[in-house]
Amino acid sequence: MNRTARILFTLTLLSVLGTHCAVAGNSQDESALRKAGMDTLQDLKEEVQDALNAQSDRKAIKVAEELAKLLQREKQYWVLAKQPDVVRLAEESLSASRQILSSAKAGRWDHAANAFKALEATCTSCHDLHPEQRAGQSQPRLVLARAKLPLVAPSRDAGPQSTQRNAALARNPDGTPDLSGIWQALSTANWDIQGHQAQSGVPAGPGIVEGNEIPYQPWAAAQKKKNYANRATADPEAKCYVPGVPRLAYVPFPFQISQTPGQLTILSEYVHTVRVIFTNGSSHPPGHIDWWMGDSRGHWENDTLVVDAIDFNDQTWFDHAGNFHSDALHVIERYTPVDADHINYEATIEDPKVFAQPWKISLVLYRHKEKNFQLLEYECYGFDVEKYYP
Amino acid sequence: MEMSSFAKQSSLVFTFLLFLIQMVVLGQTPKATPWTPSHTPDGQPDVQGFWEATVGGTYDLTDPRRGGGRLGELLNEHKGIARAKKPSRIVDPPDGKVPYLPWAAAKQQDIAAHVDEPTKQEYVDPQARCLPDGVPRNLFWTGFQITQTPGYVFIVYEQNHTYRVIPLDGRPHVPSNIKLWMGDSRGHWEGNTLVVDVTNINSKSRLDNVGNFATDAVHVVERFTFSDAKTIKYEAVIDDPAVYTQTWKIAAVIVRSHQREKNYEYWEETCHEGERNVEQMLRLNDSAKADTVKQKQ
Question: A3-161 — its CATH code?
Answer without folding.
Answer: 1.20.120.10
